[in-house]
């Protein structure tokens, strides 16, 4: 609704204005830019040859992720997002902001619906790679039998319980899984953070 003022201009009379809110992943990017010695920003694609010159387009800063129950993997699908040895010089992380979690769990078994399972497997050398080749290969295929073998070999995971509004940063070179659920919906925002050294800029993409 608008009204005429003495100067003849329209003026909004909708009521008190609210401050605009940052997209949660934008807020994370800005806070990382302030906290990290090398700063943080959106990753950019390699320059294209030809039309457009050397202009490099930036990647998106993250995407929503929606899981609806019943999920295929009741105990969660164990996987890694990058098959690479752990190193202090580089790494790949994911940032997850939880907006909604499945509700209605009534049993002890279902108390962790939508939570995260993490396994502290650390591949740091070529010898570690060869020694764990079987496990690593099993994290790249969606095979039910292999998932059973992985759980037996990896042992009990660490469980990260989450609530709406939580932010979880994790190294995606380590095995992890989202606990499945029968009913409800899990909504989160996710981006990936590339680390190339303590003095290098953190690169964020989706």
**What fraction strand?**
25-35%
SSE ordering: EEHEEEEHHHEEEEE
| Helix-strand makeup class | alpha+beta
Low-confidence segments, ≥5 residues, pLDDT <50?
1-8, 105-111
* Strands, count: 11
Distance between the termini: 39 Å
Global mean pLDDT: 84
How big is the Rg? 22 Å
Shape: globular
Largest sheet: 6 strands, mixed
Approximate helicity band:
10-25%
SS element count, helices = 4
Give the SSE layout.
Layout: E1 2-4, E2 10-12, H1 24-35, E3 40-42, E4 63-68, E5 91-100, E6 116-118, H2 126-131, H3 133-138, H4 144-154, E7 158-160, E8 167-171, E9 176-178, E10 185-195, E11 202-205
Parallel strand pairs: 3-11
Antiparallel strand pairs: 1-2, 4-10, 5-8, 5-10, 6-7, 6-9, 10-11
Explain the overall architecture:
The protein is an alpha+beta fold. It is 17% helix and 26% strand. The chain is built from four helices and eleven strands, in the order E-E-H-E-E-E-E-H-H-H-E-E-E-E-E. The strands form three sheets. Strands 3, 4, 5, 8, 10 and 11 form a six-stranded mixed sheet that branches. A three-stranded antiparallel sheet has the order 7-6-9, with no helix packed on it. Strands 1-2 form a two-stranded antiparallel sheet. Strand 1 and strand 2 form a beta hairpin. The N terminus is likely disordered.
What would a concise description of this structure say?
By secondary structure, this protein is of the alpha+beta class. The protein is 17% helix and 26% strand. The protein has helices at 24-35, 126-131, 133-138, 144-154; strands spanning 2-4, 10-12, 40-42, 63-68, 91-100, 116-118, 158-160, 167-171, 176-178, 185-195, 202-205.
């Amino acid at each position: 609704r608008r009204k005429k003022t003495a100067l003849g201009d329209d003026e909004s009379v909708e009521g008190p204005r609210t401050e605009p809110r940052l997209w949660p992943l934008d807020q994370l990017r800005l806070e990382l830019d302030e906290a990290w010695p090398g700063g943080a920003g959106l990753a950019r694609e390699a320059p294209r040859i030809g039309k457009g010159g050397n202009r490099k387009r930036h990647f998106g800063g993250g995407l929503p992720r929606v899981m609806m129950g019943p999920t295929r993997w009741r105990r969660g699908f164990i996987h890694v997002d990058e098959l690479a040895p752990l190193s202090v010089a580089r790494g790949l992380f994911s940032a997850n902001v939880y907006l909604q979690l499945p509700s209605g769990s009534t049993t002890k078994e279902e108390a962790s619906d939508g939570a995260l399972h993490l396994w502290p497997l650390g591949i740091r050398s070529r010898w570690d790679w060869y020694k764990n080749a079987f496990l690593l290969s099993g994290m790249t295929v969606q095979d039910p039998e292999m998932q059973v073998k992985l759980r037996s070999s990896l042992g009990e995971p660490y469980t990260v319980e989450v609530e709406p509004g939580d932010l979880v940063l994790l190294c995606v070179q380590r095995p992890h899984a989202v606990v499945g659920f029968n009913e409800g919906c899990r909504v989160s925002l996710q981006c990936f953070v590339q680390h190339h050294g303590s003095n290098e800029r953190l690169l964020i993409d989706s």
